Structures are given as C-alpha cells and as structure tokens.
Amino acid sequence: MKIRLLSFLALLSAYTVTAQDSLTFRKISNEIMMHSTCYENLRVLCKTVGNRISGSPAAAKAVEWGNKAMKEAGPDRVWLQPADVPYWYRGKESLYLTLDGGAYQKVTMTSLGNSEGTGGKVINAPVIMVRDFDEFNALPESAVRGKVVFFNYRFRQDFIFTFNGYGDAVKYRGGSPSAAAKKGAVAVIIRSMSTGEDDFPHTGGTHYKDSIKKIPAMALGNKTADKLEAACKSGKRIMAKLSSECHMMPDMVRSYNVIGEIKGTEHPERIITVGGHLDSWDIGEGAQDDGAGCVQSIEIIRAFKALGLKPKCTIRAVLFMNEENGQKGGQAYADSAKSKNEHHILAIETDAGGFSPRGIGFEMGQAQKDQILKFKDLWQPYGILDFSHDEGGSDIDPMRTKLGVPLAGLLPDCQRYFDIHHTGNDIFENVNHRELKLGAVVLAQLIWTVSEQGLN
Amino acid sequence: MKIRLLSFLALLSAYTVTAQDSLTFRKISNEIMMHSTCYENLRVLCKTVGNRISGSPAAAKAVEWGNKAMKEAGPDRVWLQPADVPYWYRGKESLYLTLDGGAYQKVTMTSLGNSEGTGGKVINAPVIMVRDFDEFNALPESAVRGKVVFFNYRFRQDFIFTFNGYGDAVKYRGGSPSAAAKKGAVAVIIRSMSTGEDDFPHTGGTHYKDSIKKIPAMALGNKTADKLEAACKSGKRIMAKLSSECHMMPDMVRSYNVIGEIKGTEHPERIITVGGHLDSWDIGEGAQDDGAGCVQSIEIIRAFKALGLKPKCTIRAVLFMNEENGQKGGQAYADSAKSKNEHHILAIETDAGGFSPRGIGFEMGQAQKDQILKFKDLWQPYGILDFSHDEGGSDIDPMRTKLGVPLAGLLPDCQRYFDIHHTGNDIFENVNHRELKLGAVVLAQLIWTVSEQGLN
C-alpha cells in the first residue's frame, strides 16, 4: 500500500507540459535567431586564433579567447579547470610518389595525428596497395616487409547517416600503422576518412600499439588516392619518398577547460552540463569541429541571461580541452565532479558540427528519455523530429562511466560533415549562421526542459 | 450488400507495404548515392552554360544541355515541348549613393527581374527610407514625389522555416515599385529578400500594375542596406544616382521544356511527373535554383534504368522553362496534358534547392496522402520525417488548377536557401554532392511508391 501511494504521488508530481513551455521555446528561439553572438564569436575564434591543437601556443590563446567570450556571455561565474594534455607536433612533412611509374611527384597529404615522423631521414620504398584489412591480413610478411602500405579503403557513401560510414572506415586510421608495422612495413598511407569529392586530406588521431614499432602514417585526399589507386593497378612498380618531423612532445602541457555557470534558483545542487571542445586538429580552423559546439555552448548562457530566464537547476557551459587526442579535459571534468560529489542530472555534447539540427540523441534509460520526450511536440516547429539515435560524446562520456550521468547529444544534419572534418577546409566560411544558431536554440530548449522538470 | 462487397474488395486490393519495398528503397538509395551522375551534370550545367534567363541565348544552350543529359539518362523517349517565353534583359546598371552625406559612392546592387530601366537617362534624386508598407502608406504624396523610396524591410530571421520568412518579405519585391510610383516616386530600392549576413544583392521578379508608371527597382545586399539605413537615420539628405538598361524585350521567344519518359509496364496511361526548372535568373549559376532540381529529375530516370526497375506507371522527368518570370513552361505542360486528355496521377516538383532532404510536402486530399504515408516508416532511415507541409510548386500548379492533379514537393533543409537564392553566389560550389543525391533518392522512392500502388 505504501508503494502504491508513492507511485501515485510520483504520478501527481510528474511534470505537465504547458502552453507556457511552448512560449518559452519560442522566446529562446527568437532571442538566439535574432540576437545571437555565436556566429561572430566563431569568426573571432577561427580568424584570430585559428586551429589550436592541444598543448600548443594556439590552444593557450584559445583558452584566453574562451575565458573572455564566456565572461561576455554573462554567467554567474567563469573558471578555468586544469587538465594536463599531450602535445603532438607536426612540423614539416612531404610525400612524393611515382604516380606514372616514372618521376616522383609531390602530392598533397597530411600526416595522421599522433603519427611519428621519419626521424630526420627520408623513407624511400615501394608502395603496395590493399583494399582492406582482409586483403592485408592475407598477405605474407615477405610481401609487406620494407614496403609502404597503402590502405585504400573507401568511405562508404551508401550509409545515409554518415557517422556510420565514419565508424566503418575509421579503423583504418587508428589501426593500420601498427598492423602494417607488425609485418615489417616502413610507413602507411591511407585514403582519408572522407565523403568529399575533392582532394582535401583528412588528419585525425591514429594509435600505436605499445610493443610495435611506430611507423609514419599519412593520409591522402580522395583525388590523390584515386591516382595512387590507378597507379598501383597499372602493374608498374610505384615508389614513395616521404619525410616528416611529426612527433609527440615528451612532456604533458598544463591546459584548461573553460567553464561558465548559471546557478540554479531552486535546485542549485543539480547540474546540467553542455559543452563542445576547444581544441582542434592543427589544420584548417576547427570551425565545425568544434568551434561550433563551443560558441553554441556559450550562446546558451548568453541567451538565458538576455531573456532573464532563471533556470531551477545549475547550468554549466564547458569548453573541453583535448577532445581530439586524449580527452584529458573531459576526464578532468568528470574527476572533479566525482571528487566534489556533485549531482549532475544531465550532460549534453555538441560535437557533430554546427549544421542544421534534426534531432537529439540520448544515452540514458528509457524512463529518463520519456521524460524529455514529453516535450517532443514542442520541437516540431523547429524541425527536431529525430530522437532515434543513441548519442553521447567523448568529452561527456567519463561523466557516464564514472558517475552514471545520463547523456544527450545534438544531432545536426550529417551530410557535409565528413567532407571537411579534420581538413584544411574546416573553416569559418563553411559554417552557416542560421544552422549554427538553430543548434544553439535546440540545446537551450533541451536544457530548459530538463531544468524545469528535473530528470529522474 | 453490393456496396459492402465493393468496400471489401477495395480493402483487399489496397496495397500492403512489404519487405520488398524496403529493399527497393535501399537499392534506389545505393544506386544514387554511389553511382549518380547528377552532381557532375550540375557541374556541366553551371560551368558550361551558367545562368540562363528565359529567352536568352544561354537558355537555348541550356535546352541543348538538358536534351543531351536527358538522353544520356536512357529514358524510352525524350522530346522538347514548345513554350513561348518573355525575355527580360538586364544590360548595364549602376547605383551611386551619398552614404556619408557627401560624395557619391558606387554600391553593389542588382535590378529586380522584369524591372524597367532608366531609358538612357540617369535618375538623380533624394532617398527616403520606409520600414514597411504601413510606414509608406502613411506618407503624404508630397513626401514621395520625385524621390527614390528605400523599402528597408528585413527578412525575419525568427521564422525557422525560411520559406515563411520569404513569403512575408517578398511582397516588397513584387509590390513596392507600383506602390511607390503611384505616389510619384522615381525609383525604388529594396533591402533584398535575404537571410545572408553578407552583401549579395538578390534579384527576383517584380511586377508592375498595368495602369501605373513602371519605375526602376533595385535591390541591395544586407550590408549595403545597413549602410543606407544608417545614412538615412543620420538625418543628412541622402542622394541616389542610378541608371539601368533593363527592359522587357518586345517579343516572346520560342523556347522548350525538356521531357524524358519511361513508359509504364502495367498502366502506361497513368503518368507521374517530376520536374525542376531549367531557366534561372541572370546572375550566379542557378545552381540551387534550380539546376539542382533539373539534375535530380534526370537522375531518377538514370537510376530506374540502371537498376532495371520497371515502373508500372509512366514516369516523366520534366525540365520546365520560364519558372522565374512567367511559368510559361509549366502552363504549356498542363495545357498539352489537358488537350491530350492525359491521365496524370501525381506531379512532383523539386525547386527548393538541393539541400539535405527532410520531408515531402503534399497538396492533395487526405485519402491520397494517407496512401503515400503507408510508406512513411520506410523513409525513416533516409531522414525523411517531415510530412507536415503543404507543398506543390509553381511549375506543376497548372496541373492542379487545370486538371485536378495531386501535387507533391521535395522538402529540403531550408536554412541556407535564402542566403544565396537569386544571387551571384548561387553557384555550383554551394551545392553539396551528398545532399543533392539524397534529394534524388527520396524523389525516386516517392515515385516508386506511387507507381507501385497507384494513387486514388
């Protein structure tokens, strides 16, 4: 009987969505679509800081920018949270191929992030091409030893949700150097994880297995990869000549997450986090990945303050450091939350680009999801119709694993992302101002719903 | 009893969506996402023909291009359907403003389509600014006579569905010249119908009322409009000096719709039409508006042929001529259908850009809509979740008004469209290959569903 009464009370206290919520959604949208500073913030980040790999002087400058931009948004408190991060340095790099079987031609390329270089030497060796790991695994060691292995795996354009295509292809970026080195290869070239019909090479983190020699790893854009594929198929002996100064710096570098907070009025101890990552790879401007997520997170604070919306729960916007090659910022945030015994009710990540938002993904129990989805119909006018994806994010994942916090992620349209992700073409000009702002609208609405009703 | 039996039979004959339909959806998608020629077709149209206003030599070249591209797609039959179209000619045009109250500065502008010019003269007159028609209507004639009226109405960024913002603002493009001329104004300048945070001026059709003097009408991009607004607000007397050779040519020009057809296997007399428009305004490359719709329509034919899909009904891909300033192609198509007593079961338009598709709009009865929506769940994996809009299109609208044909329209994401619509920035580079192809996928799937089950 007691249990029944409690269930009954729980039902009574359940939040009911009202017309007022719909009006608040509209208020948030109007404020951001008409008065947002996020697009201008992104311009400043991209054009005055530029790319900002963890540990670099540019990353330090980005922290300063973030600190200033966050303060301008007007939260109750801004602070820097320390995180020690790796610093991978690219330096000079080059790749020459005998694409027609004759003279060496310099080609456009990028070393994979975390790659080791050639240690001041030039590697000069024949190229062998494999379509995938199956083909590679079938090769005898004698066919691989002393060679440069070209992993010519294509990003599958038949996946409509391009993150599935990325998930399928990215194992070649992470796994091919150690796989090749194990059989005695001297370097690896991969076809980029790219949907692009262009020649931008894509960097992104590779990983070496501890006991295996760290050989250089480079990526080609699709057009150059097509040429190398044709050359290899011609039957001629194709040679590569490559050098690179890439290396991981010996010491970790002190860096920071930038955090802005609005204190909750009714439940200040309940915390809702939203964040993107401040670091980027060291080419392009880190505009979609993930300057967009940073300025959207800051924008939520600005919009709440501008509207005089006083959330019941505490809201934190976090610019995480070191998502790309270490996730040290995300770990530091979760570790701090754990050591302080903080009560986080939801963590949200925006790291899939500032494209037109289409949905919200969840990594939480169905009961929690159902509480948020009470507001589903209110999102219809904003084009937010897709709640079918499981979605968290690498920076907030430690909050889930270490503290069991429910996660959510903004789900923007994904068709263009892997054209520009991790390339020199990830620049401010490739972000649309309305798409960027609309993402911030949806994040702010999501935070409002959870702050109002809680999440149990 | 007889009636009941008929109802029962109707139920029995009602189409049931099967796993085979889901497989066909996937086949269509894989074929187009991996082997489509539509992106390359668009490149050729944009880069070798370029913009192509109705009646111009470029439009004639576009018909040749369309005829060739349609034939290459492999339909059973290709033909050109005559339509006599107006030919509006821009020629030289210029606008100088005393933006700081002193010297004249040349500004970036575009005359509105169909605008008359200055007849070899230079108009030199003071500028008065109004926010909207309400403010304009309140002005006495004496305040307007001899002036250049600047209609400074802003595209409302608070509309999430940007076509609503366009619908709200476009009356200034169509209606301001005659409204201003009626009170004795000598020319009109408008703020472009633009969501852009840039300075691209947008052309697009204006309309003169018959009995009223046709005065020149020009549009400014948002940045220049901001400057003129600030100048007008400064209280200084702002002067404009403008000239333009714009005029409508005296004679109509013989032009054509390009039509490709696959004959239906079971119901060849039932016709499904899909089309975009081949003409464009005379600036930019008409890439999103509406090269995209043309190459998508052609792609449907190519994909059906490549897959060996034999539709039960006849499918026609139509490249309509003269959507932008006359709709003569759309009218000719409907007139021909009517005179031949053709049985059209559905007409579909794709003229909202080649952006990531999000839904399908309908202009048909609920019972018909319900038949198509049987396939709703099959579209989920393709991100097609929005069936809430009423959507037809100007080229197919005569099919509805003259023959009562049900209409549908592809609904792509609309956030970027009014940044580039009718501008010099509507170029091939601003179309994404995956987004373009995905639109063709959805159109082909829609046609397949209707061809399989009919539409009663």
Which key phrases capture this entry?
homodimer, 456 residues, alpha/beta, Aminopeptidase, Glucose Oxidase, domain 1, 2 domains, eight-stranded mixed beta sheet, seven-stranded mixed beta sheet
Task: Summarize the SSE layout with pairings.
The structure is a homodimer of 456-residue chains.
Chain A: H1 2-13, H2 19-35, H3 38-49, H4 57-73, E1 77-85, E2 88-89, E3 93-97, E4 105-106, E5 110-111, E6 123-130, H5 133-137, H6 141-144, E7 148-151, H7 162-169, H8 171-182, E8 187-191, E9 217-220, H9 222-233, E10 239-244, E11 247-248, E12 253-262, E13 267-277, H10 287-307, E14 313-320, H11 328-339, E15 343-349, E16 357-363, H12 366-373, H13 376-379, H14 397-403, E17 407-412, H15 417-420, H16 433-453
Parallel strand pairs in A: 6-7, 7-8, 8-9, 13-14, 13-15, 15-17
Antiparallel strand pairs in A: 1-12, 2-11, 3-4, 3-10, 5-9, 6-10, 12-14, 16-17
Helix pairs in contact in A: 2-10, 2-16, 3-10, 4-10, 10-16, 11-14
